[in-house]
Amino acid sequence: MAEGRREQPPHPLLSLPPASKRPCLRPAPRGPGPGPGHGSGLPSSRYRSPESLLDCAAKAVAEKWAFERVEERFERIPEPVQRRIVYWSFPRNEKEICMYSSFQYGLPFRRGIRLLETGCVESVLQVGFHLSGTVTEPATSSEPEVTHKVAISFDRCKITSVTCGCGNRDIFYCAHVVALSLYRIRKPEQVKLRLPISETLFQMNRDQLQKLVQYLITAHHTEVLPTAQKLADEILSSNSEINQVHGAPDPTAGASIDDDNCWHLDEDQVREQVKQFLSQGGYYGSGKQLNSMFAKVREMLRMRDSNGARMLTLITEQFMADPRLSLWRQQGTGMTDKCRQLWDELGALWVCVVLNPHCKSEEKSGWLKQLKKWGDLDVCPLEDGNYGSELPNITNALPPRRSVFSRAVEACDLHWQDSHLQRIISSDHYMSPSYQREGESLLFNPQGLPLCLDHVPTACARVDALRSHGYSREALRLAVAIINTLRLQQQRQMDIYKHQKKELLQRGVTSTTNLEGWVGHPLDPIGCLNEILKKEHKLNRKLTLPPVYHHVPVWGSPDGGESYLTLALEVALMGMGQQRIMPEGLYAQDKVCRNEEQIVAKLQELELGDLLVQTLRKQAIQLLEAGPFSGLGEVIHRESVPMHTFAKYLFSALLPHDADLAYKLALRAMRLPVLESSTGSGDVGHPHHGISIVPSRYPRWFTLGHLESQQCELASTMLTAAKGDMLRLRTVLEAIQKNIHSSSLIFKLAQDAFKIATPADNPPDITLLNVALELGLQVMRMTLSTLNWRRREMVRWLVTCATEVGLRALVSILQSWYTLFTPTEATSIVAATVMSHNTILRLSLDYPQREELASCARTLALQCAMKDPQNCALSALTLCEKDHIAFETAYQIVIDAASTGMTYSQLFTIARYMEHRGYPLRSFKLASLAMTHLNLAYNQDTHSAINDVLWACALSHSLGKNELAAIIPLVVKSVHCATVLSDILRRCTMTAPGLAGIPGRRNSGKLMSTDKAPLRQLLDATISAYINTTHSRLTHISPRHYGEFIEFLSKARETFLLAQDGHIQFAQFIDNLKQIYKGKKKLMMLVRERFG
């Protein structure tokens, strides 16, 4: 019999893993009979005979009882019984080996199968509860053949420890352990089987035992000899600890009664890998790896393996130890979306764990204590978002702090003892008696089918827990009961609305809403129900193929035409159509949008046959008629989550079967009440990401930009479908104009409509083109008085669209330009494009049509020039060139505006244009006006207007002496830069004036003298400018500028010498400098060297 106390051996012998080594005094007495042979297994017969009673009993005992308990319970255990118990104690299910070897049939498991099938497993021996063998890795081009020793300990059909010579350091078993395990499962008759080694030793006498020990030491003297000598010394010492213990450890004798019966899981490796993945911050595939670990936890739960909760605990410990948590909290910043989703899955898994219908109360208590401990830590992430989102709610009070573990903590209070709940999950045929179906019942619907009394998300959490723990049939029954409950609630809500409809429609708004929606809920109730209803009826299970489903009838359905697939569709439609308040916080709102898209993606997997279309139509009608309880009802709360994504799916699904219903539903869903009640008719700006435009007492809509884009997608889908149908297009257009408040999105819709209306290989669709034009005109009006960086693009596109529509559209936008464009846009873009040669060719216009268009363009140009002469005058002159009266009018507008509202640069530009067009005198007049607005300081020798001044002087010079005489006083008054004045003077003295050849003018051909007017005035001004500039420069001159200053004086001397007494003036000027600035000795020395 075995003793109750366990003893660890002083040194592991051979390659034995650290298995259970409970002390054994002696083996139980052997019973009569030879028993099975050494390689006993199932008889290798062509026909399998029924299992014997011995095998049936041995299988049950091997799975449930520790072998020590068997030894204690029975005084005599016949050897055949021992052999069968030992035989059946090894795991029998390959799925369990796979679960512990890789993620979802991964590489180690497949490699293990290949090693087994290629004969690489040899020398397999089972001694008691210990299996050993060798696995040879075949040679490759880069690696030689390697043989690994593998040892496995097991107990009650679970592998409790593994050791492999390959030195594998991973959470999962290596391929060699897999190969040996599968060898034992697939070829048990080829495995040599021995009873625990203590049994064999008991049969030996003293000489045999001594011989065994000496041979063992000889075979492994380098490894065993020190340990053997140490043990011998301790045994020979009467007071040693080893002599205080009865019996001796046997690593092959199986587990003790007190040992945990669980599969081997390397806890250190779990911690290390989770820590490593977290440190990578979701990059390099670490997020995918962590999700795979979560999936492994679910797989363990489904196999009802206690390591599921154990592994989840290890993962959670590392998540809570993530150093980024404290950093995020200190900085008040949020974690990344990937990381946030991992925490959500962690919380959901704990709900599944604590809702295990067969967990022990002490287990649940332990989990509850640990979950509360984690949840109370400051760094623990919150359920509804990041650390920075703890904002006051509508009542301006901080809500109670809810961590990601709060749902799991609450789930610990739930139990499965309710008799009604037990009957629901245990039978498909649970119904109320027919005589009890009169009147209302809390437990059954009018058809007698059971109802679920739990809050919907809680009930769905139960479904998820049942499915996760391998109770799929029970989960399915509870899911059906939940749907029956939802149906009854929906019917009652519709009855309530019928009595309140008139009053609600008069008010136009409702306060009725769900504060906790099912879409985006932490427990994902809709996704959970949808998954369980669809999963059992998937025809193809391969992950690489698109899913194919079939209908399985639901027992007890009223008309017998329901299947679990129709229920899956119905519950998804109910959940998506639920009217619910927009949650607070960026993450919670983003989760609503993401979850909605996930559900729609799942629905799109379904091929809509007659049954599903019938369900779709029925539920769509109910959602439209459910009033404030439906997000598609006639009256909704202003903070209600929009239905755009959901409605887009419904529209596309219903359109081939019931177009009227599809349009009615999609048009109803176009609304966005939060904007409709808070903005005027103008543009509210775009994008809205992170910006709240609703009053501060409401939460900010962080996802408003995304919601508006989904609204735009819905509208675009309807426009595409309504192509060619003028009535439907007009209805969709009105809905867009009423409900979409973003100019950028309306512009996108206009572009989409234009693209669809003008296919490359077909004639354009004029109805859709008109809609595109209408939308474009609305965009122009919305953005006319606001800043929009795409405005120029929008204007150009509108002209293109109007051109495609035709002449009348172009005439219309030209005549109503002031409601659509700024004067600059109207002249420089719109009118210029309309009058271009390409437009004329595109429209194939005859002469009267061209004249009509040109007349409108000229009228527009003159109106714009009057309104904004600074920016439109030149464009107006250009557009009016071919009409003398219009051109003269435009010129007069410029002259009138020149003295007040126009800058010198604008006037110079128009003046150059006039010269280019052959109007030199008008050009001179405008240049003279420009000079009156100019002021060029002494140090502005690189001013942008210098070229214009030189050009104006050259123009005046070319026109004649009178014009030059007229402009020189303006130059002297406006220009104070000596170098510019000297340049003008030099140019005027090089040629005779009047070279322009103006009719009626006579050119004298004589050069002008600087001693006479008008150049005398210019010369005096230039000399004066040089003197003033010299004094200004000397005030703050530095030695490094001395050379430059000397060159400046040299240029000044050239100008001085143009006067009759210029050399005398310059000499006096130099003497004056020497006297005034005699303190600048070095500079004055340079002046003397150059100028005397």
TrEMBL record:
Q: One cellular component GO annotation, for this chain's record? A: Cul2-RING ubiquitin ligase complex
What sequence ranges are listed for the domain ZSWIM4-8 C-terminal? 906-1083
- Zinc in keyword set: yes
Question: Please, which domain of life does this record's source organism belong to?
Answer: Eukaryota
Q: What InterPro entries is this protein classified in? A: ZSWIM4-8_C (IPR048370)
| Chain spans, region Disordered | 1-48
Query: Transcription: is it a keyword of this entry?
Result: no
Q: What one GO molecular function would you report for this record?
A: zinc ion binding
The name this protein goes by in its record:
Zinc finger, SWIM-type containing 5
Q: Which organism is it from?
A: Gasterosteus aculeatus aculeatus (three-spined stickleback)
Taxonomic lineage from the root: Eukaryota, Metazoa, Chordata, Craniata, Vertebrata
